[in-house]
Amino acid sequence: MGQRTQRDLHDLLSTMHLAVLPLNEDEAFGYVAPEAALHGMCVAIGPAAGCVDVFPEGYPYVLPARDDPTAIAATVQRMIVCDEERRTWEARIAADVAATCDLDGVVLPRCLAFIGG
């Protein structure tokens, strides 16, 4: 199986409605959560995941505990059942996360500005 690209990830994300990533700070794929958000997808994410910092304050789908299946199920149920809340976040999450971590539009230009002087 060949190496996966960012384009592969974007193709996969375009087929999804929401993501559930109860990551901790040491697990790989931490960048999938912001990428999913950049696609306008709500993400249920573990409270200790390093990438949780790019989500806006008050984001309602940060899991109370990553190792609690009842809490994960309740958060996913809320994401599915509470249409108005989820749609509100779907409408704003991409812009909120992009303001912090869009690699091409925000991060790389800041790095180049820092390197350039």
Spatial extent as radius of gyration: 15 Å
Strand order of the largest sheet: 1-2
CA(first)-CA(last) distance: 42 Å
Largest sheet: 2 strands, parallel
Structure characterization notes:
The chain is mainly α. 52% of the residues lie in helices and 7% in strands. Strand 1, helix 2 and strand 2 form a beta-alpha-beta unit. The chain is globular, with a radius of gyration of 15 Å. The model has no long low-confidence stretch (mean pLDDT 85).
Question: How are the SSEs placed, and which strands pair?
Answer:
Blueprint: H1 6-13, E1 18-21, H2 32-38, E2 42-45, H3 69-81, H4 83-101, H5 103-116
Helix pairs in contact: 2-4, 4-5
Sum up the structure in keywords.
117 residues, mainly alpha, two-stranded parallel ribbon, globular
In short:
This protein has 117 residues and is mainly alpha-helical.
